[in-house]
Amino acid sequence: MDGGSGTHLPEGGKARRVYLQLRDMIVQDAMRPGDLLPGEQKLAARFGVSRVTIRRALEALAEDGLIDKRAGAGSVVCAPGAAGSVLTGNLASLMPQLVEMGQRTEARLLAFSYGEAPGAVLQALALEPSEQVQTATRVRLLGGVPFSHLTTHVPARIATNYSEADLATTPLFRLLERSGVRIASAHQSVTATLATPEVADALDVAVGSALTALTRVVRDVDGQGIEYLSALYRPDLYRLDMTLCRVGAEDNRHWEPVLSEPPSPSEGVA
């Protein structure tokens, strides 16, 4: 992996914990480019670990291009490079962002086939057991850096309206509508998972790296399932936000999502 574009987890659970905490502070702007990290001894005391553990964490951060280890000066925070180009998806205004995502990012098609649907897909899309689906796996990149691993399942009766070449160059959202599908709704779940060897290689991260996992089921105006998406995101390059407002009166006040907020220029999803 090239330094600065991947994630280099250090060996050892303690070193990984320190690495992840320092990395989060840098990526989330708690530490700014040019800031000097405390010395190894102070960091060791702060995190309750040995200096050897601190050294492993710092070496991994340096490999990721997040710090610059300077002889006699200590470790200096670098501009995070690719990690600074973080895409943001708004959970409340998700679907309108699909077109923008296709315009701002590059997609690479890794796999394309027709066959039986996995059990979870069969159930979610309410398909007949004999009904085939088109399964495609893509990676999306921002500035040449992979940030998402996407596997989509679409019923074959719909997918035959576009080709493998179309899927490699055009967002699936557009292809579905071009096929005459009238998309009406979607339900999605967000959780976390760890990168398998295959996914880690595609996303240029270490095996076992933490990933944001999103599952989305899209339905048409008749309530029929038309797409099942399983998406994995690098959390250093993609985040999901939601704006909430306080509504109601007195004892009935509660939080509700802001649904009318337009996406900002930095937003986009799979």
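[next item in queue]
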Amino acid sequence: MTADVFSTAEVASDTATVRAAAVPEILGRTRDLVQPALRAAVDRLDEGSRAISAYHLGWTDANGVPTDGNGGKAVRSALAVVSAQAAGASAEMGVPGAVAVELVHNFSLVHDDLMDGDTERRHRPTVWTLWGAANAILTGDAMLALAQEVVLDSGSPHAIPAGRLLAETTRRLIHGQVLDVSFEQRDDVTLTECVTMAGGKTGALLSGSAAIGAVLAGAPPEVVDALALFGEEIGLAFQLVDDVLGIWGDPVVTGKPVYSDLRARKKSLPITYATSRGGTAGRELAAWLAGQDSGDDADLARVAALVESAGGREWAVAEAARRVATAEQALSAIPPGPRADLVAIARFIAGREA
């Protein structure tokens, strides 16, 4: 990891990029294209896994009654569709990849909620709180297996390379989660290690999502590599923004309790940056992290102020903007239409509030 991971001065002027952003039209357009295929894929699951998946995806309530709930932003599936178009193919060529990455993403969310003990997602009870740990694990596993099945059944002559990409992506995602869990037992996590973890836990799937449609379309390696780099960079931007929201996000918007990452004592990017900088605030924050008592809201507000005083919030916002700028530069050879859609997605990621 280069030293510019730690720099804020060169990107300070770009922080205005990371503000509340309107949902780009491309997300709605690709969601309408992908949703029928995603529902058809979930219908392949056994009855129990199908019902739990439908709830988690926001299609039903806990009793199986259809709802108009929020199934998430569907950023990853949008990237997969647009990546096929970036390779000169139709949007439809990217749909199997879009379904697959959406399934992998939701497999990881179901498992993450269980591992983190989170009781609420998107303003609703999490799967494990309703159906128990065993069913959460099995449903996540079913979605992951189904993702590979969808790619291999895509009909593309490039289904096997796409399936390999999906498997490698999932392996990297799991490694990132392994690192994240291991950090809970350590008080000496460095910023470089934290960036590596985020690159696996979040960057890997966004990178794979931005490349899988192009792989299904048979794009040349230079196109696939450019899209993968784009996805990797916006993945890190996504995690940086997520970590800011995990401390300072509005619970009404995020659907998570105030100071949620502080309650969990997560070694998130802004927190790790703050402790790495030293100084009075950084040392006091490190001492708090090494303790056991999470404290009440007043204490957590004090800790959040320490992170901010040590520069963690400012750095995370600036670094997210820098990552988005780097991602956009990777698209120089991509056709204008798909490039504009990818840039819109990247800027939405950096400016979202949930």
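[queue empty]
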